[in-house]
Amino acid sequence: MTDTQHQHHAASFGAVAADYDKARPSYPPALFEAIERLAGRPLRGADVLDVGAGTGIATRLLAERGARVIAVEPSAGMAAQLHAVSPQIPVVKGVGDELPCHDASADLITYAQAFHWTDPAKSLPEALRVLRPGGALVLFWNLKDRSVEWLAEQERRHAAALPSYHYYGVMNAVTEPLSRHPFRVVNERLRWERTITVDDVITDLRSKSYFAVAEPELRERVLADDREWLTGLFPDGRVVEPYTVDVTVAVKQ
């Protein structure tokens, strides 16, 4: 993907914020237990920046565990959806490459489904600037388990039908850039699943950037084909989606 295409995809989420908030997957409790264990500190009472917070799916879960969370989000549409659902969570406009924060002001910086939108040459030094000594940068992604055949077939279908299709893959190649900075890095992978309706699957797909940037006629045709295909696979309308969650915790040294 070129830089221009990358920016186009990154800017596409505001228009699909409601679909994103409605149908994107949440995160299992085990993820936050792993974050606390790997970071060596509880979330309760921690000052957390949730960068690329989107509609606040992870932000709310961090707050529920007692963290003092500030959401950092560049998209006005996504930030508006976050504020509408969770008005108690402060939201500031910004990006990870240039955090709108004071030096040494955060115990944790989290990126949920978001670090791949940054330039690590900028976002990692920014994280080091903003983190307090012993603080941690926490990166995590929900990834559909493509070892399951129907999910692998769905990926093949989308890759063939959509010129804009992309899949970032496991760990998003973050470990190597982190190794060039003063972090102690640990990784973990968790597994979980959710059961949703076929309608929810289609809504979730609408919130993907590669659907959001597609030509409307093509997008609707692919979604209609997916609905028919999924209904054949899941005639009761209930879809079990297995996920892995890749989490990287980088503790500032």
From TrEMBL:
List, alphabetically, the SUPFAM superfamilies matched.
Answer: S-adenosyl-L-methionine-dependent methyltransferases
InterPro entries for this protein: Diverse_substrate_MTase, Methyltransf_11, SAM-dependent_MTases_sf
Q: Which parts of the sequence belong to the Methyltransferase type domain?
A: 49-139
Which GO biological process categories is it annotated with? methylation
GO MF entry, a single one: S-adenosylmethionine-dependent methyltransferase activity
Superkingdom is Bacteria
- Which keywords, in A-to-Z order, does the entry hold? Methyltransferase, Transferase
In terms of PANTHER family, this protein maps to:
METHYLTRANSF_11 DOMAIN-CONTAINING PROTEIN (PTHR44942), METHYLTRANSFERASE TYPE 11 DOMAIN-CONTAINING PROTEIN (PTHR44942:SF4)
Protein family membership: Belongs to the methyltransferase superfamily.
Q: What is this protein called?
A: Methyltransferase family protein
Organism, by scientific name, is: Kitasatospora viridis
Q: What is the lineage of its organism?
A: Bacteria, Bacillati, Actinomycetota, Actinomycetes, Kitasatosporales
